[in-house]
Design goal:
Aspartate Aminotransferase, domain 2; binds pyridoxal-5'-phosphate; globular; alpha/beta; Aspartate Aminotransferase, domain 1; 4-stranded mixed beta sheet
Length: about 400
């Protein structure tokens, strides 16, 4: 009997090793892994370059307190700042911590300019920002908050796509709007560029902050370093995690100068966040993602994959309702039950992940090979064929 609590609905597969896009089960079965730890292993399993970086750092220095200067973290922060809208970075260990730090930074900013009552955060209902107390109440999801009251105050909600509702929900106490640039858990719903541009304008007009949660869609997943770059806008605060560690737990909140000025010494901290081992891995991930043509390849692979998936959709219009996504954050919205579909994909040795709205989420590593995409396409077509003959 397992001594692990039953808070996860685990599939009955365990793995012993992984290499690139593939994982091998304890039973010796080789799977094409298009979950990749939910968009975490951005460079695939056991990436040799990352393995070398972590191995090298592990022999030098693992952890020191943030009471001291950490050169590896200085370097990673500077590289993130140089490549993005951000001026300053605080490192964390996970996505939820990063989104909480984003909320703290927004509130602290208004506090620092003498407007402490501007502290409410406006979010999309049924979004996802992590599983800590504040993050679940930020999500506005009944399922995630059930039994975890009392409700953490300070969050307001509007429905995805309801522009009027959003504007109406902004009050004099609103500090920020926080949304995922592309919603992952809730069903791969990408906020269109014109909406992001409108959101930026609205936040400027109302003098509130724009927080874009890029924990899942950031770090190259969308085909640009950040998904909001497609809309050519600049947010004020961006939490990141998942892909930046390539499988090692790293989170961070990126901020512009204005916001970061409120995060004075002692205002926020983390014991583990930004330790030398994590920072060495983060720098190694950036070495790969910042390579010339890396992101262009993500875009090319995405265009090919999405067009092939649309072909399958056209062949099986009673099974696939819609192909959604951006870059290599892809979803198939189904008419058929998602669990049944995922189960059949598992049996055909392609691992995928469920998301909201009956969507099957497909998350290859960013350096996936064309023939691995072709393999996935064949399996997905085969499963559609099986289901259409049932
Ligand atoms: C995964 C995720 C989080 C939470 O990250 P954890 O590391 O699980 O805490 C937050 N926001 C978004 C958009 C995510 O996809």
């Amino acid at each position: 009997m397992s001594a692990l609590a039953k808070n996860y609905n685990r599939r009955k597969i365990a793995f012993k090793k992984g290499k690139g896009s593939f994982v091998y089960s304890t039973k010796g079965i080789k799977y094409l892994d298009f979950v990749q730890g939910i968009a975490v292993n951005s460079l695939g399993h056991s990436n040799p370059y990352l393995a070398k970086a972590i191995n090298k750092q592990s022999k030098k220095l693992w952890h020191v307190s943030n009471a001291f200067i950490i050169p590896e973290g200085e370097r990673l922060a500077k590289r993130l700042a140089q490549k993005t809208f951000a001026d300053y970075v605080i490192f964390q260990n996970s996505g939820a911590e990063a989104t909480e730090a984003a909320i703290k930074a927004a509130r602290r900013y208004f506090y620092s300019i003498g407007k402490p009552k501007k502290n409410r955060i406006l979010c999309i209902s049924n979004s996802f920002h992590g599983r800590t107390l504040a993050a679940i109440f930020a999500s506005g999801s009944k399922k995630m908050t059930e039994g975890f009251g009392p409700k953490v105050p300070g969050f307001d909600h509007f429905k995805f796509g309801d522009h009027e509702g959003m504007e109406k929900a902004i009050t004099k106490n609103t500090a920020a709007i926080m949304v995922e640039t592309a919603m992952g858990e809730s069903g791969i719903k990408v906020i269109p560029n014109w909406c992001l541009q409108g959101l930026r304008k609205l936040c400027n007009k109302k003098k509130i902050l724009l927080i874009l949660d890029e924990v899942q869609c950031g770090i190259g997943r969308s085909g640009k370093f950040f998904a909001f770059e497609h809309a050519k806008i600049k947010p004020d605060i961006v939490p990141i995690a998942k892909g930046i560690g390539g499988g090692f737990p790293i989170g961070a909140v990126l901020m512009n100068k204005k916001v970061a000025s409120a995060m004075t010494p002692g205002s926020h901290g983390s014991t583990f966040g930004g330790n030398p081992l994590a920072m060495a891995v983060g720098n190694a991930v950036l070495d790969q993602i910042f390579k010339k043509d890396f992101l262009r390849n993500v875009q090319k692979t995405s265009t090919y994959f999405i067009s092939e998936l649309n072909n399958i959709k056209d062949e099986y219009p009673n099974i696939i309702k819609e192909v959604r996504g951006i870059g290599l954050l892809i979803g198939l919205q189904l008419y058929t039950d998602q669990n049944k579909f995922i189960n059949k994909l598992d049996k055909n040795k392609l691992l995928t992940m469920r998301a909201g709205e009956n969507v099957v989420r497909i998350l290859p590593p960013l350096n996936v090979k064309r023939q691995e995409i072709d393999l996935a396409i064949n399996i997905i077509r085969k499963v559609c064929d099986q289901l259409s003959n049932e």
